[in-house]
Amino acid sequence: MIVVGVPLTDVWAAADSAERVTQALLGEPALVLDERGDWARVALPWQPGPDPRGYLGWVRRAHLRAGHPMVQAAPGGPPDVLDAARRLLGAPYLWGGLGPAGIDCSGLVHLAYRQRDTRVPRDAADQHAAAERVPIPDAGPGDLFFFARADGHVFHVGLVTESGGMLHAGEEEGVAEGPVSPARRAHLIAAGRLRERT
After folding, report:
1. What whole-number distance in Å separates Cα of residue 192 and Cα of residue 106?
2. From the CA atom positions of the chain, what is the Rg in Å?
3. Mind listing the pLDDT tens digit for each residue in 184-196?
4. Which of 68, 92, 107, 139 has the smallest CB count inside 10 Å?
5. What is the mean pLDDT of the chain?
6. Rounded Cα distance, 158 and 108, in Å
7. For the residues 135-160, what does the mean pLDDT come to?
């Protein structure tokens, strides 16, 4: 089996692209679909997406190795989703990021669930599609708030907190917790609950 052999690697839309689509973690399995020079096109089964094989993208071949999948266990056992996300408070925003050096909104949700050794979709739109609907006023801690543009495209997601606020990764503030701002609330379209898939 092929796995990621470095602590964190960028996954790009195309070889030599400047568009990061996600990142992959040490020990994460990678199904190699194609190889071109220093690059490999992979499917990441631990990051569900529209393709049934997993999230698709290109990584440097040097960042892959033969090995066994390695779950990044959380110290002291799996935390709840909010506790896992709170470990990243203050991390800067990074489009496609999936770690403490930079993370995006859907990456925060994905990684928080992964700390519980469960897999949920990687992107906000896919998380929205997979979530069981909850009436917005009934959303509770650990549920998700989804935000969409006028065309209906879901562009942001955050975890509902105990106070009814949100824990999320925003472009300006990075990973932060607080009330849902009026500007964000104007785009709030749904609340949902992800079913954990091991």
Report:
1. 14
2. 16
3. 999 999 999 997 5
4. 68
5. 94
6. 8
7. 97
Asked about 153 being catalytic, the answer comes back as no
Catalytic residue chosen out of the listed positions 63, 110, 128, 156 = 156
What six digits make up the tokens of 38?
């220093």
Query: How many other CB atoms are there within 10 angstroms of residue 133's CB atom?
Result: 11
The full set of domains in the chain, from first to last, is 2-66 (2.30.30.40), 81-193 (3.90.1720.10)
pLDDT tens string 67-99: 999 876 555 566 799 999 999 999 999 999 999
Q: 63 catalytic, yes or no?
A: no
For residue 119, the cross-strand partners are 197
Q: 66 has which bridge partners?
A: 2
Catalytic residue among 105, 128, 153, 187: 105
Stretch 17-40: mean pLDDT: 96
CA 98 from centroid of its chain's CA atoms: 6
**Lookup result for tokens 């569900």:** 48
> Which position among 63, 110, 128, 168 bears the catalytic label?
168
Q: What is the pLDDT of residue 197?
A: 53
* Paired sense of beta strands 39-44 and 20-25, if any: unpaired
For residue 141, how many C-alpha atoms fall within 13 Å in the half-sphere facing its CB?
Answer: 11
